[in-house]
Specification:
By secondary structure, this protein is an alpha/beta fold. It has 8 helices and 5 strands, in the order αβαβααβαβααβα. It is globular, with a radius of gyration of 17 Å.
C-alpha cells in the first residue's frame, strides 16, 4: 500500500447527500452457488427500485469481471481479491447513497464478513441475502453448461464441485429459490428494506 497519500474529504457529507437524494445508501449482497438465481433476482430488484424512483445499481460478474477485475482468475487468491475489490466499490456506491445490489457467488465466509466490516466501519448499511438452491437444482438449471463441464473435469476449481462454497451462518435474508419465483424473492427483499426503514 502506498504511504505517500493523504485522504482529501469532500465538501458534501453523508447526511447532506442522503437528504438531497432522499435516500440512504445500502449494500444488498446476494451470495449463492452459480445458477442459484442471484443475477436474476438482482436484475429484478434493481428494476423494482428504479421504478420506485430510487437510485439503484447492480454489480455482478458481467460488469465487474469484464472490466475492473479482468486481470483476475478463479484460483483462491484471485477469488479473495475479486471480492475485496467489489466490496470497496460497493462501499463507494453506498456512500453515494445508492441502493447497491451486489450479486456474486462470493464463496468464502471470511471475505463476506470482511466486506460487512468495511461497511460497518464506514457507518453504511449491509444486508446479506443467501440465495439458496441445492446442488441438485442448480445442476438441473445449469444455463451455461458450467456444471456439466466441471463434472467432466473441463473447469478446474468450480464452486460447489471442485471448490468450496461456505453458506452464510446468519444472513439477514434467506431465500430458497427452489421454493419461490423471482417476484416473490424481490418481494421478500423489499419488505425487509421497508421494515428496516431503508425504503
Amino acid at each position: 500500500m502506498a504511504t505517500n497519500i493523504t485522504f482529501h474529504p469532500g465538501s458534501v457529507g453523508a447526511s447532506e447527500r442522503s437528504e438531497l437524494l432522499k435516500q440512504k445508501g445500502i449494500t444488498i449482497w446476494l451470495t449463492g452457488l452459480s445458477a442459484s438465481g442471484k443475477s436474476t433476482i438482482a436484475c429484478a430488484l434493481e428494476q423494482t427500485l428504479l421504478h420506485q424512483g430510487k437510485f439503484a445499481y447492480r454489480l455482478d460478474g458481467d460488469n465487474v469481471r469484464f472490466g475492473l477485475n479482468k486481470d483476475l482468475g478463479f484460483d483462491e487468491d484471485s477469488r479473495v481479491e475479486n471480492i475485496r475489490r467489489i466490496g470497496e466499490v460497493a462501499k463507494l456506491f453506498s456512500d453515494a447513497s445508492c441502493f447497491t445490489i451486489a450479486a456474486f457467488i462470493s464463496p468464502y465466509r471470511l471475505d463476506r464478513e470482511t466486506v460487512r466490516e468495511l461497511h460497518k466501519k464506514a457507518n453504511l448499511a449491509f444486508v446479506e441475502v443467501f440465495v439458496d438452491a441445492p446442488l441438485s437444482i442448480v445442476e438441473q438449471r445449469d444455463p451455461k453448461g458450467l456444471y456439466r463441464k466441471a463434472r467432466a473435469g473441463e473447469i478446474k476449481e468450480f464452486t460447489g464441485i471442485s471448490a468450496p462454497y461456505e453458506p452464510p451462518e446468519s444472513p439477514e435474508i434467506h431465500i430458497k429459490t427452489g421454493e419461490c419465483d423471482v417476484t416473490q424473492a424481490v418481494k421478500v427483499i423489499t419488505e425487509y428494506l421497508v421494515s428496516h426503514n431503508y425504503l
